[in-house]
Amino acid sequence: MEVEHQTGERYGAERNQPLGQGFWMETWEGRAELELDDGTLVRLGAQTLVHLSDLTKLSTGQRIALLSLERGTLYVTGEPAKGDALVVVAPGREVSFLAGSRVRVEESAVAVREGRVKLHTPSVEMELSEGQGANVGEQFELLTELPEGGLDAWSEQRDREAAEQGSELDRYGKWAGEAWRPDAQEGFAPYRRGKWRWYEG
User: Fold this and answer.
1) 92 vs 65, 72, 131, CA distance in Å?
2) Beta-sheet strand order (sheet of 74-78)
3) pLDDT band at 180 (very low <50, low <70, confident <90, very high)
4) Contacts of 168 (CB under 8 A, 6+ apart)
5) Which residues have CB under 8 Å from 139's CB, separation 6+?
6) Residue 49, Cα to own-chain centre: how many angstroms?
7) How far is CA 33 from CA 6, 53, 161, 185, 195, in A?
8) DSSP class of residue 129?
9) For 55-104, how does the pLDDT look when each residue is reduced to its tens digit (9 = 90+)?
10) How far apart are CA 118 and CA 107, in angstroms?
11) 3-state class of 152 per DSSP?
């Protein structure tokens, strides 16, 4: 995967490299995974280009995450807290998370694998729930049966792994904001959620 800073500098990304607002990310043959501060997981399929347009935490504590998909496939798993905004923008549409959801966004389609989102296009504004989707090419088409995407199985596997990791941490310690502290003093180390990290394979 390659990343481009807002200064225009372009370079190959390293595993677990922190990225921030204004960065571009581009995959070629591989896939990539990123994690936001709030635990939202963002996965890129092959041949995908995405911009981290807005990653803001306001003084009120509200978080705003705006991801701009230029091409390819994006799979987002997130649950914005009350007052937070998690939005994916792609050509001709905008997808706003209304609850904890797993959503696949492609160049001309949106598929809600779980949860509930609001879809905005130049001609349509509507809510989509689990199992619904839409083609948003030249003509709008509501889908009540979702075709399987190449990223679905991998993303669901990664979701399960993330949940298992979270349950293990919950079992042996406590969270204080972004930091986890173990109950036992031996055999564990404090852990802090990374801002952004990526996985390719």
Assistant:
1) 19, 14, 21
2) 32-35, 41-44, 74-78, 101-105, 109-114, 133-136, 140-143
3) low
4) none
5) none
6) 13
7) 20, 17, 13, 31, 12
8) E
9) 888 888 899 999 999 999 999 999 998 889 999 999 889 999 999 999 99
10) 17
11) helix
What CA–CA distances, in Å, run from 100 to 107, 150, 156?
23, 22, 14
Q: For residue 127, what are the contacts with CB-CB under 8 A and spacing of at least 6?
A: 98, 116, 117, 118, 119
Q: Is 8 exposed, middle or buried (0-12, 13-18, 19+ CB in 10 A)?
A: exposed
User: What φ, ψ does residue 51 adopt, rounded to 5°?
Assistant: -115, 135
Residue type, 3: V
Residue showing tokens 């009540």 = 144
Give the mean pLDDT of 16-40. Answer: 83
Place of tokens 């598929």: 111
**Residue 201: what pLDDT?**
42
The first and second tokens of residue 35, run together, are 């994690």
Q: Do residues 77 and 159 make contact, with C-beta atoms less than 8 angstroms apart? A: yes
Polymer length in residues for the chain: 201
Question: Tokens 């490299």 map to which residue?
Answer: 17
> Is beta strand 109-114 parallel, antiparallel or unpaired with respect to 2-4?
unpaired
* C-beta separation of 120 from 75 below 8 A: no
Burial-class residue 182 by CB neighbours within 10 Å (0-12, 13-18, 19+).
Answer: middle
